[in-house]
Amino acid sequence: MHDPAAITAQLTANLNGIRQRILAACQRVSRAESEVRLVAVTKYAAWPWVESLALQHSDFGENRPQQLAERQPLLPQIRWHLIGQLQRNKVRMAVQHAQMIHSVDSLKLLEAIADAACRENCRPELLLQVNASFEAAKSGFHPDALPELWPQVLQAARGLPIVGLMTMAAETDNPEETRPTFRQLRLLRDALQNRPDTIAAGVQLHELSMGMSGDFEPAIEEGATLVRLGTAVFQNLERD
Ligand SMILES: *Cc1c(COP(=O)(O)O)cnc(C)c1O
User: Fold this and answer.
1) How do beta strands 125-129 and 207-209 pair?
2) Grouped pLDDT means (10 residues each) for the chain, 240 residues
3) Residue 228 CB less than 6 A away from ligand 1
4) How far does the centroid of ligand 1 lie from the alpha carbon of residue 112, in Å?
5) CA triplet 66, 69, 73: central angle to 5 degrees?
6) CA–CA separation, 75 and 70 (whole Å)
């Protein structure tokens, strides 16, 4: 698809469809639609689609630091999110180009991010990735280990804002099966938020990054504030 007008029209239709579904999910549980932000995941999107989307949307997510570093300077008006696994040798790139890092999956990585952010004079918002679906292949803090590690987490962040938790549900054909994973993330967030040490540190865990194209509706019903959608945003656009 080369025609810029056709790309724009298709993206508008896709976004409208998604917004309808977000609104309906919010209404089912009496949430305000404004509580849910759509992060458009651009990792597989061709550059003309990304440029076109930037005219009508402002939160983009990349899962590889290199591609983030290439694209962010070309669209500096966009709020860029890093959502994919981060190696420690790419941390500098991540803090330079991401306003929010969703994939902080270990204490060591958190320490490296805090170091780099201090050196680069950046203040990215951070989400701790939790392996709430207990899959061996997924990275993230174990939900049962996080409460014990929490004092170390608060210290390792060195004043960088930890704003919430992120998770990925197991892949399934039935989105309903993802609900317990999302509910567990919310309950874990609530428990961490209510601790005296969290309150004393002034940390506010208001974000829950959960839900992808296949499961964002149950995620919203369970409290998601950030949904990360790639396939749904870019559907029906054909590569040349
Ligand atoms: C790719 C990706 C998404 C988006 O997945 P879709 O199924 O295309 O919506 C969301 N989160 C992460 C961490 C991803 O890597």
Assistant:
1) unpaired
2) 88 98 98 98 96 98 98 98 96 98 98 98 97 83 96 97 97 92 97 97 98 97 98 90
3) yes
4) 24
5) 155
6) 10
